Amino acid sequence: FTSTRDKPSDNDLRMARRMAINFTKLCGLILVCTTVYNEYISYYLCQVSWASLPADATDGGGHTVILLVADPQIQGVQHEPGGLLGWIRRWDSDRFLHKSYAWATGAYSINTIVFLGDLIDEGSEADDEIFAEYAARFHSIYPAWGRQIIYIPGDNDIGGEGVDPVTLRKIDRFEQHFGPSSSVYSASGQVDIVPVSRLTEHGNYNLTLKPAQLSTTKVVLAISHVPVLPLNGRFAEKVMNLVNPDMILSAHDHSGYMFTADRQSRKLSRDILRFSKKEKTAVELETRIAADPEMGIGTLAEMVWEVVVPTCSYRMGVSEMGLGLMAISSQGEVFYANLWLPSRFSLLYTYAASVVVVVIIFLLGKAVEIKRLFRRRQEMQGVYRRKYEPLLTI
Q1: Which of 71, 206, 227, 306 lies most in the core, judged by the most C-beta atoms within 10 Å?
Q2: Mind listing the pLDDT tens digit for each residue in 332-343?
Q3: Closest by Cα among 123, 332, 345 to 225
Q4: Which pTM value belongs to this model?
Q5: CA dihedral of 204, 207, 211, 213, whole degrees rounded to 10
């Protein structure tokens, strides 16, 4: 006689299988949640923390809204690893740049987008064919989407840093792929944007050509890749004498800050304001004082400000990346905010950590499954031994 307790249990046989399925689902859930957070939620959390434009800038109050993109420096092939690893690094960097740009352009009604130089990391070093490939890749990352876009070159695009010289061929090549430059760009009926450059004064960057093309009834913004006022010197003097802008916007340093100087001496008049992700308060300035009834715009303030926009690329060796957002009224009232971006390296570390956790869980699940199967095998051997042992002893 064999007790019913000695018979195999279907529940016991299915236990290991159920456990394996649960472990597999848990691993999949971890990977899905990590991906959703890294590729969507992290950007959303940044976006909801971005500053809101002044009310009169969003209700048709006549403000010009400008998005500032500094040092994207899309990665090339010469200074990156070869093969699959290099491709993955370029692909991930490109996706980060594009998604940041898409979230920013979707969050605000933007009139003009300004790229403040260093568009291509290896632009100055590349031959014409490779440069064309880089430029096409750049435009796929940053489509115009119907907006006015202004590009100025940086030292990584046309040379000018160290032993890498600026040449006319590099300047012409840049303009071939990023449009002909202009001495003055009209961002709107109330704002002129003037490109200036420490790297070259060739063609439309010749400062002596600027004054005749500037409107006396518009707010004037000077844009430069390399900072102007912090370095001062002869170039800064020429910019202030010939352009005399309401404000200067630059890049190159990768970290963001605001430099406030006396308009006449160009010397620092206030402590430098270092931008930080921890401090999300927008900067509000008035570049004009009492309006002139005849001109319709106030006279320039005694101080001049230069905003150095932080890099938007996580490959630049800084922990905080962002885009710049500016709204300017017809009377020189300026609103500036940094649109801080997710820390991509932290997110990549999260991917690595989640993979490690998934591998551990998977191996643990397999170990549990094997242990249960082994135990069930021993139980079955005991059952069969008791069942058939009397027959073997006959």
Answers
A1: 71
A2: 899 999 999 999
A3: 123
A4: 0.86
A5: 10
